[in-house]
Every structure is written in C-alpha cells, then in structure tokens.
Design a protein that fits this description.
- By secondary structure, the protein is an all-alpha fold.
- The protein is built from 17 helices and no strands.
- The chain has helices spanning 3-39, 45-70, 72-92, 96-124, 127-158, 163-166, 168-182, 196-215, 225-247, 261-290, 296-300, 304-324, 326-345, 353-380, 384-416, 424-449, 455-464.
- It starts with a helix and ends with a helix.
Length: 465
C-alpha cells in the first residue's frame, strides 16, 4: 500500500477523533435542558462543562510529553479509548453526580486527542502541505459548532439524549482502526524516565487555579478563604513545578521551550484570542435574547456565521500564508479581530440584528487567519522530540484563555447585574463593560503578534527542524 494511501487513511482517522472531541462541547450544551429534566440536579449543571474543561487542561501537557517519549500512536490509542469509555459511561449515567464524574473521564481522553492529533499532522505533512492541512483540521471545531445544535436537537427530540454520547463509539472505533492500521512511526526506543513529580505538582497547581477560577463568584465569593487559599496553593505548586522541571532528567514541560521567542508570542496570542472567542460566544446570545427579543433558539444560531467564516478563512490562509508571509497573515488576522471588537463595543440598544451577523463573520474570518498560522508555527520551530510538548503548551494556553475569560467577564457582568430580574439597562451596561474589555484584549492581541519574527526567520527555524 502506498505511503500516500497511508497518510490519507491516518488523516481521516485523525479528523474523526478530533471531530468527536469538538462536537462533544456543543452537542452537550444543546441537550442539557433534557438531561437536567431526567437526572435532576440543576444546581450542578455548570460542573458538567467545568469538570470537562478542568481535566482536559490538566492532562493536555502530560499527554503531550508522553507522545514525545513513547510515540504518537500509543498515546492516541489511550486517549481515544478513554474518551470513548467516558462517553459510554456518560450515556449510561443515572444521576447528575455520576454524569459529572464520567465527563471528567471524557475530558482526560480529550486532553490526549487535542494534542496528539495536531502533533501527528505536523509529523506526516511537510512545509506548505502542513499549512493547508492545519487549515482543514482547524475548521473541524467550526464544523462541530454548526452541527452540534442540530445533532443534539435531533437525538433529544427523536431518540434520547443518551445518544449524544453513544454516537462517539462508532466514530471513535473508526478513528482507532485507521490510525492503528495506517500510522507507521519510527523513533529511538530506549528506557524513558517519566517525570512523575512534575506531573503531580503541575496537576495540583493547575487544578487549584482552575477550580478557583471556575467556582469564584458562584460557589464561593472571590474574597473568601477558599478562593484565596486555592490561588495561594496554585502559586506555591507552580513554583515547585518549575523547580522540579529544572532538576528532572526528562521534564514534563522542558523549560527550554520558554526560551523560544516565537513560541512565547504564539502562546500569548492564543491565550488572548481564545478568551475573546469565549466572551463573544457567551454574551452574544444574552444580548440577542434580552435586548433584541429573539428566541433562545434564534440566539443560539447567532454564532453560526462565525462558525462558517472561521473554516473558510482557515482554508484560505493555509493556501496563501507561505506566499504572503506567515507574520503578515497573523497580523492581518489580528487587525480583523480588532475591527470586530470595535464594532462590538459600538453596539447600542438600537443596533439591528444584522450587525451581529456582520460582527460574527468579521470575527470568525479574523480568527481563521490568526489560529491556523499559529498552529503551523508551533509545529515548525521545534524538532520531533519536542513537538508534542509544544502543541500541548499552546493548547493549554488557549484553554486557560477561555477559562480565565469566563471568570473575568463574569465578574464584570455581575458588577452591573446584581439581581435575578435585571432591567434591560442593567443587562446592556454589564455587556458593554464586557465588550469594552473584549476590545482591549483584541488590541493587546494585535500588539503581541507584532513581536513575531519575520517570515524569513520563521522559515529558517522551520528548515532547521
């Protein structure tokens, strides 16, 4: 069988695995009203999403390092099996508490899939072909965002909500068969030293930080002893983690990766840009329902233009970035995202619904130009032995941006909205506060991408690896 056939089969398998991980985010949100109706436990609804985010963030860098130590295939298999197993258990859950625990297991599997899929793409595709494929793989999230509400709605209305989880089983099996059968990798097999202490200190640090961010202002006041204690614990264990990594023979997160300027810039822009994505996704439906008076279903589909524009831009930039320049492509994306942020901040109560369509299209297009070249840069500036860690670090920063964004935007919004039955004025004031911060973040993001090296320097680093 030809090498091209192997690559094509592996690509299909990776797309399938990445798709079920991405679909799971949106499809669960659509089914949650029916899930809480059957399982009760409405007060625990936020943890169905939060626990998945937490375990994904914690395990992403760990699986990234394991992929560098033991190869991509074995880590992909472990991640897919854990994700599918978690999906089956979620579908069988008979209480909200059980569902939350099984979602945690799903999140662990997703931590491997998010990292390893992009790492394998970086391994099997060279140069410009890699850029094109990154555009295709990056669009999976947008396609999942479009299909999630439709798939979730269909299963809830005509079958049962449990099939939003069971559907992952056949797709996961297809992904496993294709990757196991057609991915042939070779690397030096020698005794590896696993950085257990680094993984432990990192897990405690990040779990403390994320739990504080996810529960602060809701389960516990921000100035409570619990939240302050969690932040202190996070700081202490981050310092311990850094100390351990300096001493470890095979560090989980080699500190040398933070000496690569271009990686630092890409990680900062990932953190900032994806925090903006979260803010828009959360607060756009609130404005459209509360200010414009549209239905929940109608507001839910407001993000669809973004989900269409993003993959289109990803595919376009994947084809032209080596001609117009990688840095130029990213800076253009940053400018477009700032334009969307400025348009968003200029909204008022009389702004028509069509403005929202325009904002979503502009923002999605800008994010496509930002995210795809960034993925290519991460793959290009390190060698095979650090590519998994580099991908994991970037994925972690994007996830942290989303998590921190939720916490900060929620704090600002709640400063203006202090009752369960707020007036339209209070709602718009709260959202305007969020939108102004979003604009400031888009400006900071544009400033950060200006620090990227020139196209020539990025290409030189790529050729070196």
């Amino acid at each position: 069988m030809s090498n091209r056939t192997n690559v094509n089969m592996v690509t299909i398998g990776l797309l399938a695995a990445l798709f079920i991980g991405a679909l799971d985010v949106t499809v669960v949100a659509t089914a949650m009203p029916e899930i809480t109706k059957e399982l009760q436990g409405l007060s625990l609804i936020s943890w169905v999403f939060s626990i998945y985010t937490l375990t994904t963030c914690v395990t992403t860098p760990i699986f990234g390092k394991l992929a560098d130590l033991f190869g991509r295939k074995i880590v992909f298999v472990i991640g897919t099996v854990v994700f599918v197993l978690g999906s089956v258990l979620c579908g069988l859950a008979h209480s909200m508490t059980a569902l939350i625990w099984f979602r945690a297991l799903q999140g662990i599997g997703a931590g491997a899939l998010n990292t390893v899929c992009f790492t394998i793409v970086g391994d099997i595709f060279p140069g410009e072909k890699r850029a094109k494929m990154m555009g295709v793989f990056g669009s999976v999230w947008s396609v999942a965002g479009l299909l999630g509400p439709l798939v979730g709605g269909y299963f809830v209305d005509y079958v049962t909500w449990r099939w939003i989880f069971f559907i992952n089983v056949p797709i996961g099996i297809i992904a496993l068969v294709l990757v196991i059968g057609f991915l042939h990798e070779s690397f030096e097999r020698k005794k590896k030293k696993i950085d257990y202490l680094g993984a432990l200190t990192f897990t405690i640090a990040l779990t403390s930080l994320l739990y504080a961010l996810l529960s602060g202002g809701e389960q516990h006041p921000w100035n409570s002893g619990t939240i302050i204690g969690l932040f202190v614990a996070a700081a202490v264990f981050i310092l311990l983690f850094l100390w351990v990594e300096k001493k470890a023979a095979e560090p989980m997160m080699p500190l040398s990766i933070f000496k690569i300027k271009v990686m630092n810039v890409v990680n900062v822009t990932g953190f900032l840009a994806f925090s903006v994505t979260t803010g828009i996704t959360i607060y756009a439906p609130i404005w459209i329902q509360s200010v414009l008076g549209h239905t929940a279903t109608g507001s839910g589909y407001t993000v669809m233009p973004m989900s269409i524009a993003w993959p289109i831009a990803s595919v376009i930039v994947g084809r032209i970035m080596y001609r117009v320049g990688i840095k130029a492509s990213v800076v253009f994306g940053g400018v477009v995202v700032v334009a969307a942020g400025a348009w968003l901040a200029a909204l008022n109560v009389d702004s028509p619904f069509a403005y929202w369509i325009g904002i979503m299209i502009v923002f999605g297009f800008g994010m496509g130009f930002l995210s795809t070249p960034s993925n290519v840069i991460v793959q290009s500036v390190v060698g095979w032995e650090m590519r998994g860690v580099a991908n994991a670090a970037n994925a972690l920063m994007r996830s942290l941006g989303q998590t921190v964004g939720v916490a900060v935007f929620g704090t600002i919004f709640n400063h203006y909205v202090t009752s369960d039955t707020p007036t339209v004025t209070e709602l718009t004031s709260g959202m305007h506060g969020v939108f102004l911060l979003l604009l400031a973040i888009t400006a900071a993001n544009l400033l950060s991408v200006l620090f990227l090296p020139s196209h020539g320097k990025i290409m030189a680093q790529q050729k070196a690896h």
